[in-house]
Description:
- The chain is α+β, with helices and mostly antiparallel strands.
- The chain has one domain.
- The chain is 32% helix and 23% strand.
- The chain has one helix and two strands, in the order E-E-H.
- The protein has a two-stranded antiparallel ribbon with strand order 1-2.
- The chain starts with 7 loop residues before the first strand and ends with a helix.
Amino acid sequence: MNTHFIQDIQIKGFKCFADFKAQGFMQVNLIGGKNNVGKTAFLEACFVNVSAQDIKNGSM
């Protein structure tokens, strides 16, 4: 089984993110914040990026 982890992510022009970069992810990460600050948008951006890479590599 191949396990992949996100090491860093850069989001540009997606929903509430004009230009955002996050790095230093580990195996378990918590995402917290007040209402309407972009927690769900961040997770959606991660999912869209991973899904696009899977499709590009033919593993989906």
